[in-house]
Amino acid sequence: MSTYQTLTVEMSGRVAIVTFRRADQLNAMNRLMQGEITAAFEALSEDESVGAIVVTGEGRGFMAGADIKEYAAQTAPEFDSFQAAGTRMYAAIENNRKPVIAAVNGFALGGGMELVLCCDIVIANQFAKLGLPEIKLGLVPGGGGTQRSVAKLGRNRANMLLMTGAIVPASEFVDAGLVNEIVDVEHLMPRALELAAMIAAEPPTAIEGLKRLTAHATAGDLAGGLAMERDILGGLYRSEIGQRRVREFAEKSAERARKAKP
Questions:
Q1: Four-residue CA torsion sign, 234, 236, 240, 242
Q2: CB 7 within 8 A of CB 20
Q3: Over the stretch 149-199, which tens digit does the pLDDT of each residue have?
Q4: 25-55: per-residue pLDDT in tens?
Q5: One domain, residues 13 and 109
């Protein structure tokens, strides 16, 4: 496992835990951290020993967006390069072959919320807050925040968030479907790890197939999604593990039926 300066990657069984470690900066993302997040997630995507990923931050912040001190000092070409590298970083999370669970432990603002929008499941503690406050700097989100917030929240709700720059308790995103669960602080990581271990125990090819299918569903291409669903299901049904599990289920069902007969 590689060594990083701004984050750590640890294993718990088949679950990889990525922790941002710039607590003194509320885990604000500088160029080094951006590159290390990309490298870590790209490596985890190809690591067959990993079944799921949990991402969180140390201290009071999940990720408080970009490091504004560094941001302000960038030249125009450096700014463009940072944004282009950000596109690759978010893709490494959103398109990861492994399910990514965000354990939101505090502020997830700007680029931090954009990272949350890339995750497959989101668990937050009762103090976590999310927002896209770029409008306060006279800017708009540049890491997919405008597009993914509409896809996951709906246009009007996204407009309210984007146009006011409001910082909102994570609990307000539960009904919208962005946040799956709110848990007490002490239960945040145990719950995230519990879910990740549960998912990691399932057949990797089936989990990867589900990720692809649900991602495709957001594009609104029903016919294409149904065709993809049939193709993936057919491959899984024909696989060794699919055949074994179907056969075992059928045998157990038949056994229950025999026992139920008077």
A1: negative
A2: yes
A3: 989 999 999 999 999 999 999 999 999 999 999 999 999 999 999 999 999
A4: 999 999 999 999 999 999 999 999 999 999 9
A5: yes
Query: Would you give the DSSP letter of residue 142?
Result: -
What is d(CA 239, CA 76) in angstroms, rounded to the nearest whole number?
Answer: 51
Asked about 78 being catalytic, the answer comes back as no
State yes or no: is 208 an active-site residue.
no
* CATH number of the domain where residue 121 is located: 3.90.226.10
Count of domains in the chain? Answer: 2
Angle, nearest 10°, between helix axes 240-260 and 222-238? 80
Q: 46, 58, 78, 114: which one is catalytic?
A: 114
Burial of 167 (C-beta count, 10 Å sphere; 0-12/13-18/19+): middle
Q: Which of 36, 58, 134, 186 is catalytic?
A: 134
Domain hosting residue 117, numbered range: 7-200
- 153: its two tokens: 């929240």
